[in-house]
Each structure stands twice: as C-alpha cells, then as structure tokens.
Hints:
Layout: E1 7-15, E2 26-30, E3 46-51, E4 65-72, E5 75-82, E6 86-88, E7 91-96, E8 101-110, E9 114-121, E10 124-131, E11 146-148, E12 165-167, E13 181-185, E14 191-196, E15 202-207, E16 217-221, E17 230-231, E18 248-255, E19 260-266, E20 270-275, E21 280-286, E22 306-312, E23 316-323, E24 330-339, E25 343-353, E26 358-364, E27 368-374, E28 380-386, E29 396-399, H1 425-432, H2 444-462, H3 470-495, E30 498-503, E31 510-514, E32 518-525, H4 526-532, H5 550-569, H6 572-583, H7 588-601, H8 607-616, H9 621-632, H10 650-658, H11 663-697, H12 705-732, H13 740-752, H14 770-788, H15 799-814, H16 822-829, H17 833-843, H18 851-864, H19 868-879, H20 886-892, H21 897-902, H22 905-920, H23 923-936, H24 941-958, H25 961-970, H26 974-990, H27 994-999, H28 1006-1019, H29 1027-1037, H30 1041-1058, H31 1062-1080, E33 1088-1090, E34 1124-1126, H32 1127-1146, H33 1151-1154, H34 1159-1169, H35 1172-1181, H36 1187-1202, H37 1205-1216, H38 1230-1244, H39 1251-1262, H40 1269-1289, H41 1293-1307, H42 1332-1343, H43 1349-1381
Parallel strand pairs: 1-29, 2-7, 6-11
Antiparallel strand pairs: 1-32, 3-4, 4-5, 5-7, 8-9, 9-10, 10-12, 13-14, 14-15, 15-16, 16-17, 18-19, 19-20, 20-21, 22-23, 23-24, 24-25, 26-27, 27-28, 28-29, 30-31, 31-32, 33-34
Helix pairs in contact: 1-2, 1-3, 2-3, 4-11, 5-8, 5-9, 5-11, 6-7, 7-11, 9-12, 11-12, 11-14, 11-15, 12-17, 13-22, 14-15, 14-16, 17-18, 18-19, 20-22, 22-23, 23-24, 24-25, 24-26, 25-26, 26-28, 28-29, 29-30, 30-31, 31-32, 32-34, 32-35, 34-35, 34-36, 36-38, 36-39, 37-38, 39-40, 40-41, 40-42, ...
Organism: Poecilia mexicana
Domain NUP160 middle TPR: 815-1081
GO molecular function, one term: structural constituent of nuclear pore
Amino acid sequence: EKMAAVLERSLVEICGFGREAERRFREVTVNPGVSAPPGGLKFADSTGAFHYNESGKLLSVTSNRFIHWWTSGDTVQLVEESLDTNLLNNGVRLKFTCCSILPGGVTVHETLNNIIILICTNQTVHRLVLPHPARMYRSELVTERHMQSVFTDVMKLDLQDPAHCAVIPGWAGHTAIPGAVTAWLSFPGDAHFALAAPTGGITVVTLPPHNSQGGVSVVELKRSSMMRRISGWMPTAIRGEQSPADLVLSLAVREEEEDSLIFALCQDHRLRMWSLTEQTCLLEADMLEYMPACKGVRRLSGQGHRLRLAFSSRTGLCLCVHLAVPQRGQFIVLQLVATDNNRYSLEHISSLFSTQETLVDFTLTPTDVWALWVDESNSAVVKYINFEHNIAGQWNQVFVQPPPEEEVLIGVDLDPRVRLRLHGFVSSLQIFRRGSDKVLDPSWENLKKEVTQAVESELQSSVTEFEFSQEEYRQLQVEFWSRFYSCCLQYQEVESTPLGLTVSHHTGMACLLRKGFVSFLLPCFAVDHLYLSLDPYLLSEEDTPISDDPDTARDILQLVRTLRLVSDTVSPEMAYEMEKALEYLQTPEKAAELVLENMVCNDKDGVIEDIQNKLQDIRSPIAAMVALLRELDLETDSELGGDGPVAPGLNVRMSLSQLYGSSCAVSIVCQGVCHMAMTRAQFCRDLLILQKLYLHFGDNVCSTCGPDLQQDLIPRTSHLLSSYHLLKHVSQSLASSVPMDTIDVNLQHLTALELSDTPSISTVLNPQTVLELFYQTAARRIIISQIFSQQHPDSPLFWTHMISTVVQLLAQLLWPSNPGFQFPECLMANCQFTQLQEYVRLVGPWCQVNIGSCRFMLAQCHLANGEGQKALRCFQEAATEVEREEFLMKLTGSEDEEAAAAASPRLQYYNKVLRLLEDVGLPELVIQLASLAIAEADDDVHCQAALWTRIFKHHLDLGHNSEAYEALTQNPDSSMQLDCLRQLVVVLCERSQLQDLVQFPYMNLHDEVVGIIESRARGLDLLTHNYYELLYAFHITRHNYRKAGTVMFEFGMRLGREVRTRLGLQKQVNCYLAALNCLRLIRPEYAWIVQPVSGSTYERPGASPKRNSDGEFPAEPGRRQVDILELHDLEKEYFLSRARLTLAQHHPPSAAIAGSASAPELVLLLVQTGLFDSALSLSRIFKLDLSPIFDALTFKCIQLQTGGEEPQSEAWGWLAANQLSVVNTKESSATDEAWRLLASYLDRYPSTNGQHHRHVIHKLLSHGVPLPDWLLQSYKCVDAPSLLRLLLNFDLLETAAELVLEYVDAVLGRGHQYFGIERPLSATSPPAWLPYTAIDQLLHALSETQTHSNLHIKVRDKLNEYHNVVQQTTEHRLASQRRVAA
C-alpha cells in the first residue's frame, strides 16, 4: 500500500471555524466592587489556551479537548473545543466591571476533580472552580454525539464570593505592566497570582484552597532586602533601595512540591529566580552574556523581552528568553541545573536568531521554540525550530493562510455571487447595511437571502434610469457585489489579527490564535512543501526527501524552482481560463498550450529565457518528473473500504466511533484535503505548462525528452491535474438540504438495491460541503478503522501523525483512480443527486476506473430527476462492467447463495435494477430492461421465465393486453405460465375487457384457460363474477356449442341451488334458454350434454386433497354413473325454471323455495298463487295429473262466491295472470270471471270419462255450493251416470230425479244431443242402456220419504215408459231379424 506521502517539517495553517454557525456565548457580569482607575489605560487584546493532561489518550473523556480564550478590555471569552465530540454550552463571556483583563492574566489548571480558571485584572484576582469533565459523566462510556462542556454549570457559580475573588491591595492608582503577570496552583491548592510591581519587584496575591477557610495573603519580592510576609489586606512595607532596573517585564513559574520558583525577566536584561517559600532570590543571570556583540544593547531598556518555560522528564526545566533588540532579536534557550545546598545555575543550550522584527507571541516545548511575528502588512509569520538539533539555525516554515484576494476575477459566464465564500457573513452584512438591521436567523440559507436582498436593494436605490441593457445591469451587479466583498475583507482583516500561539505538549497539536477564530497547523506533505517554500528554504538536496538519490534530489529542487517561476508568470486571466477548461471538460494539454502561447507572446521581461536557463541546469528532467508524479499520485492498490479487525472492548470501540468526529475536526480534515487539492492542482498545472515548454524548446534543453513527455509524462500529469481539480471541486461543493420525504423515498430505493444506509447526521457546520458530509457519514469510520488496524488503541494520539494520516486516507478515498467507490455511494445515500451528477460529469472523459459504477450513479441521478429513459440508458451501459468493478459486484451480491450461484452476475444486476425501477414506479422501463436481460439469459430457463413473468405483469398493469399475452406465451416455465394465465384471466375479467380475453388464440393453452375459468367460476360468487358467461362466450367464439351449452346449464343449476332470488331465477331461465339454443345449433344426433353432478365438489387442477371429518383422506371414488341430457330434457328444465320465475315475479316470497321445488311441488305453489295457466302448462309438459289444478281453481271460485269485497279485489290480480279475456261489463264480477276461467279449462283440457268435471262437481258439492247450470249441462254430455252417482252421494234426490227423467227422455230420443247420445233408442240403433243401479238407489231413497212421493211416481212412470218402448223396440228388431232370416 502506498501510505502517507513523505512529511516535511513545515506546516500549513487550516482554519477550523471558518463556516461555523454563529457561536452563542452565555454572558456573566462580575462586579468586584471597585471603581475605574484614572487615566483610562487600555491593555492590548490577548489570547491563550490550555490542553488537558490526557488529551492525547484515546480512552480519556478529555481526548483531543482544549480550552482557549480571548481577552479584550474588561471581557474574557472562554471556549472549550473538542475534536471528537460537539460540546454543548461551550462558550462563556465574563465581564468584569471597572476592571481590565491583564494580557497573560488568564490561566487554566487541572486537578483530579476540578478545572480551575485564574483571572487577574488590573485591580482584582478571581478564581473559577469547575467540575472536571471526567467527573461530569457517571458512566465510563460516553455514547452521545454531543457532550456537555466544562462550562455548562458556570452560571451556577457565585463569582463574587470573597473566597474566590479579591482586590489587590495597594494597587489603587497604580498601572499594571502588560504581560508581567502569571498565576498558578500550588500542590496544596492555593491560588497564587504574581504581578510585576510598578515600582519594581513582584507582588504575589494568594487565595487559600477553594475547599478550605482562610484569608487572602499578599507577598512582595524585592531584590535588595529581606522580604517579610504580611497577612491581611494591608500592603507590605518596602525596605531598601528602589531601582527601576529591576522592573519585571515577563514572569513564569515552576511549581515544585514544597516551593514555587518564580522566574522574572527584568528591564535590566537580567533573569532572576525567586523562591516563594523563602521569599529570596535564588538565581540572577545577565542575558546579554548570551548575545554576541552586545555593546550598546545594555543601555537600551528591554521593554519587549519575554520569558517562557517548558518541563519534561528528559530535559528537565528549560527556559527560553526572547531579547527584543531592534534588528537583532534573539531566543536564548537555557536549562535550569540544581546543585547541592539549594543552589541553581543555568546551562546554555542554544541561541536562535531571526530576521523578523515584531514578535507577537512565542511558546516553548521540550524540543522546539515556536514564534509568531507580524510583517509589514500585518500578516502573521509563524516559524518553529528545534533548539537541540539544529546546527544550521534553519527555522521551519508555517504556511499561513494568505489574506483573501482584493479582487476576484469573475468570468462573463458566471454570476457575480458565486465566488463569495467568506467567514463572518453576519458581521460583514451589518457593515454593508451600515448597522441598520440585525440578522435574526444566521443559517446559511437565510444569510444568502439576506445578502442578496441587501445588495439588490442598494443597487436598486442607486439606479436613476428605468431602462438599461443587460450588460450595464451586470456591470452594476459586479460593482455592488464588489462593494459587499470589500466589507467582508475589512471584517476578515480584523478577525484575522494574530494574537498568540499554543502547542500541546501531549499531542503536539499547534494552533494559531487569531482575534476571531482559531486555526490549526497541519503537517505539510513533502511535495506541497517544495512547491510552497521560498527559494531560501530550497538550498540543498537534503531539503528534498522525495528522492534518496542526490542527483535526482538536486534536479527536483531545480525543477521546483523553475515551476515557481512558471507559476509567477501565469496571469490570473490565464489561470482562470485553465480552470474553466477543466470545468468544461476540455483537454488540459490544449489549455496548457494556450497558456504557454500567451506566456510566449507576452514575455517582455525575458522570463521564458530565464526558465530555459534553469531547465538547462537539470541533468535528468525525466527522472525528476517521474519522482514528483509518483509522489503526487494517490493511487493505492489496497482497498480502504474494509473495517479492519474489531478493537477489543466496548469502550475502545465507542472512543473510536467518536475520534475526530466533531464539527471542528470535520472542518479541519476537509479543509486540509481542500488545501492539498488546491496546491497540487496548481502544481500539476504548472508542471504541465513546463512540460509543454520542454517540447517548445526542443533539443535546446533536452534532446531525448520528447517521446517520454508526449507518451507518458504529459498524459500522467494531465490525469493528475484533472484528479486534483476533482478533489478541489468536491471539497468546495456545498451539500443540499434534503426534505424528509425525499430521504424516505431514497431509503426505499436503497432498500430495493440492498444498499440501505443511514441518512446524513446533523451538523453545526453551515453550510456543509459534500466532502464534509462524506467524512461524517462514511469516510471517518473507514479511516479510523484503517489506522487502528495497524496501531494499538493505547498509543498516544500524536497530532502530526494522526491528522496527516487522516487527510491522506481521505484524499485516497476520494481519488478517482482507486477502486473504492465510497464517495459516490455516500452522495447517493444522502440524496445529493445534483452533486453526484456533477461528479460523474467531471470524471467521465478521463477516468477509466469504476466506469460502470459511475454510469449506475448517473442513472440514479436521472431517476431522481424523473428522467427515466436516460436512467435506463445508463443502467444498460453499467451492465457491461458488472463483473469487473467492486461496487457493482457488491450490488449484485445476493443473500440467497443458491440463487446467486445459479444466476450470472449480470442477470443479478438486472434483477436489482428491475426491482429498483419497479419500486420507483416505471413499468415501461422495467419492460425494456427485462427484454434486454432476456438476451443475457439464453441458457438459464429459470431466469428467462422470471423475466418473461415480469414483462407480462407490467404489460398487464399498463393495459397492454396483447403484449401481456405474447409475454405469457413466451414463458418457458409451465408453472409460471399457468400463474400468468390465471392472472390474465382474473385481471381482464375485473376490468371487463372480455373481448380481448375471449379472442386470444391460446395456442397449446386452451385446456388450461378453460380449467382456470371453470375453477374461478366454480369457486367464486355467482352474481358478482361472470366467469360462466365468459366461458360460454369463449366456447361460442370457438363454435364449441355443446361445451357452451354445458357451461350455461351448469350455471343455471348452480343459480337454482345457490341464488334463491328473483334475479337468480331470471338468470337461470336465460342460462337454460342459452343452453337450448346451443343444442339446437348442433345436429340432432349430437344434441346432448353430460349432466353436471349436483352438489359435488368440483376438482380443480392443482387443488390439494381434502380430508374427511375423521382427518383421513377419503377412499378413491368409484366410477360414477353419467347422466346424458338431450334436448327435450333441457326443454323440461327450461320450462320448470320459467315457471319458477313466473311464480317469483307474482309472489316474491316464493322465490326462496321455488328454486329447489320439483315439478309437482311447483304446480301446487303455482295454483296457490293463482297462476293456473303456468301450472297447467307445467303439468302437461311433465305429464302430471291436472286434478289438483281444477280442485284449486274450484276452491277459489267457492271462496269468491262466498267471500266479501276483499277477495274480489285480490282475485283480479291472479285472474289477470291467466290467459282469459276479461269481460269488461258492469255485470261481470271476479266470481263470474273465475267461473268462466274454470269453464274454459274444462273445455280446453278434456279428460277421460269427465274426470275433471267430476273433481269440480265433487269439490262444489262437498262445500255445499249449488252446481252451476253450465257445469251440469257440460257434465251431462260427458258422463251423465257419473253425475247421477255424485248427486246421490250428496243426497240431492230432486236434482237426481230430474236428471233421470231427462236422461230417460234423451235415450228415448227427446233431447239426446244434450247428453252426448248420438243415436237414441230405436230398432236400428245400437243397444242403449240406463244406470239401473243408481236409478234403483234413487227410487229406493225416494220411496223412503213422504216428501218425494211425487218424484218417486214420476221416475217410476218414466221407467215404465222406457221399458215399454224397449219392449216394443225389441219386438220390432226380432221381427226384422226373422224376416231377414226368412
């Protein structure tokens, strides 16, 4: 693996708070009860910082935490920062009434249980006791992303408690010396404040330990006499001479177990060491002894002298004195050496010189001296040097952030607003508005609106003309945005004022403390160091650690010097053109040629010739360039995506999960990558121009370089330039805020791809770049796992190693030529589709790694933008790389190993994309992609079947019925084909698209279709689904009339059995009628159907076997008897169903029972309802006896005749239902019409021997109803003897006697036609007879009653008459026979 590039000793400044949301300070005002001193002396602003003792330990709660502060006038602002977690309530602003904070008067100290802040003003001293962070958390594990700061409870403190504050006695009216103050805690816990006395010497004010009782004590230390400790509030008497020479300029303290050693650097250039316990001066040394050629310096007062201490177990106590001598400033590093008898001496270690003049601050570590100056332009100059191993006296550089450009070049194709990216927008906006309004919402989105509105309102207010050209308006825009930019510059200039330095002794982290923010000093990579360093720092090949070969190192130095010359020659306009060419994907080589052409044409100072001369000094330019390109290339063979071994212990894992995860660390790391990208992009640009210059000079410079340059080095440089331009773009592009509904939808899509990831975490960075988003959500975890897979968790967190490794690994994760694809995947997971699309656009023309993955990401972007066809095209292009790229291989991974082994990676890819397109809701694209995938699945029948099933499903959903049918027929899997066929039938039925369903040819699927429809028909409700009718139409279309008839007959049977309603009966009639029509269309010999088995369970294809009530499978059924129904059988069923319908129509309650009624039962139901016509028709069809019908009608006639008005009105209803013309006369009644109906039936349906008449008469007589004459006359003609017997049975003797008399007359020839006698009694007619038995019974009955004696005589006489005629007739016949015989 190519790990971090070589690190140089130089550093680069990175601002950690440039885009932080406006910090909110909690305000605390302290009133110590003093009045402001006369004169109104103001002290300079100052700053400082404190680093926790365990800030370098991973498992500590104070890991990577520190406190920094600013003082200005009467106010001190304290802020606690952490690189691991975001601290809540971490800012507090203390204001001391009528006091001024002394520069250097704030110190922070750490004890086991507390953090103690000591503050010294010009009149008072104060102590703040806060709980230690380790005591603020009950649990050993801190899992929150946000933690409470040590300042959380500061509002609860009583800062005016006398135990924690005191007025410095005797200082009223005196002027404190700036910087000559220090404070410390003794081992017992006393708080000591040492101040330089205005009259010379040192005043020490002591507060007792915060948890004990006691008063404030004051001690004065003077050089000339024995000091005496005085307790209380009274000042100490000063004895001895008073010399201004011992005026203390700088103080420092070293706390020992039993004493405090106070070091004072005085105005007389002497360093004095005091013992606080003994109150004596233990050591005095003249610092000018360490300054060469110090003549004349002694007469100068050392107003700017400063002193710093550093202690380590290896070097002991070291002191560093800065002698502020004009033009001869010097740092002297000394070591305190203790001898016997409590004597001390100083050992000189090193003298360090610097050409800088105005020292702002410096600090001492156990190995280095760090110094901060300001130059003539008030810009910061930071350097550091190792005071032990630095023979040449060479200071190491710190590349501080240059001030922003006073003018920003804006191309004609850009909006004037797009280049503004500055810190402090809120204050700048107030400056621009002249302080008129306060910004209430400091969020980035609102700030953009506020700034735009402010600039536009200023522009509008200055315009006097109502119309002007677009170009004029743009010029106005540029002018007013430049004015706002100027306000930003003014504010930034003030905020960037350097005030101090801080370096952690535990982690080596160095910070530059500016007035408005803190910036961090990151180690500089060697190639960046070479490009950024000035020529004085590039003196020998030893300064070039890129190559071990001295000749190559020398060539590299010369090449870099030449690159600097090229960089100075490139004008801002040409640099912008080069930038634009990269942005618009133009070839970098061509852009470099244009820049070179411009340089050659505008070369007025002979720069090109100077460059040529320098190039001639390079012996092997190809080797030097190869070494540089190798160092610039971040490509690595190893995969950084792995998590590495899991660290043991939950607390270790939790600490790693937070390491460098705060918003501050996110900003530092990402700006470090941005700085690297910007530096190296410019480096590559200049190198590409230089390579073109080599080609331009030709053999004059290097005769053998041309082929290597053109074929290898120039393409590599161009590729690196494009790569670093991409990194720069990524580090500067802002992330978009995403609505929650969009996140939810995207999460569903990622779930479909099995790539679900957590959405973006909240951040206080405002706005957030996509690089910061990537680092927070994905990269930080990968990087930390990578680091600690090779490093033990207990190892110290050294700043230079850790931060450089994090920056390098993050850049490698972003490097487009590396196989990892985590960055685009993160953008996709967090819905940053615009930025992802731009990323793919930038890498497309030149990057040959992850081509397919980029096309896949572009497809995702198109999907998010609603451009489905574009997305489909990109998905197809990505498919070719599925087996070669890590991301696509991960995408195609399947949880089902068997399925993964069976299908090819490309088919798995298609399945994932198809699932995604289905989830998005793009069925047309699913069809297109599935059709394409089928070509890939030539040998995989299962995959083909699944794809055809998908195509079928979506065609069907879209209403493409024909296409769905075609897809169904192409399916090679019979089971899936049957499922699709079943779905097709069901869906088309639900949509009522039966025409399509019936007309499909169903090649080789006819029986399956019929089976499916039959199964659906027999398994679903009859009235809500029309599958029987569909099946009927299906068979009719194919001219299969017998099956069509069978279907309708079965439908009718089920309707009668299951749907006991009038509607069901109506459908049943129609079904039977349709079945009849079908059979009539067939030749008679084939006009038959097999009767469906009533009440049986239909066996459906694929149905599971059913168990009986005992849980056992029933025995196999035997062979069933098949019933054949012919046409006349269907006709009978049809008439039966029609009769049922007629009954239900006239009497709806009967519908429930009519459906299952047999023909005899139905006849009874019909006659009960009065439907005699229907009953008679049904009886005749089924050859039933008509007697029950005549009985019923007779009974109705009886009821009408004997009933009142109500039966009469009801009778008209059932009378109208029978085929009898109603006589509309006033005399006609319902009774008359009923009798007429009965008479008509007797005439219309004659019976053998007048059976119907006999039933009617019997019914009437049994109810005592007189027989109508028409009935008697009618029955006489049919069967007079039977009538006689009926009359005798009911004792109607008179009527019977009259009947006998009439009957005898008829036989004798008088009225014979009324009795149906064709030929009366005569000699030539056939023999005639009389019912003698009945007549004898009548005579016997008449003879037994006196009332009927006359009738008896008449009958007997009539019989005698008949007998005489019979005798005569007989004689005549006998005579005739004899004559004939004779």
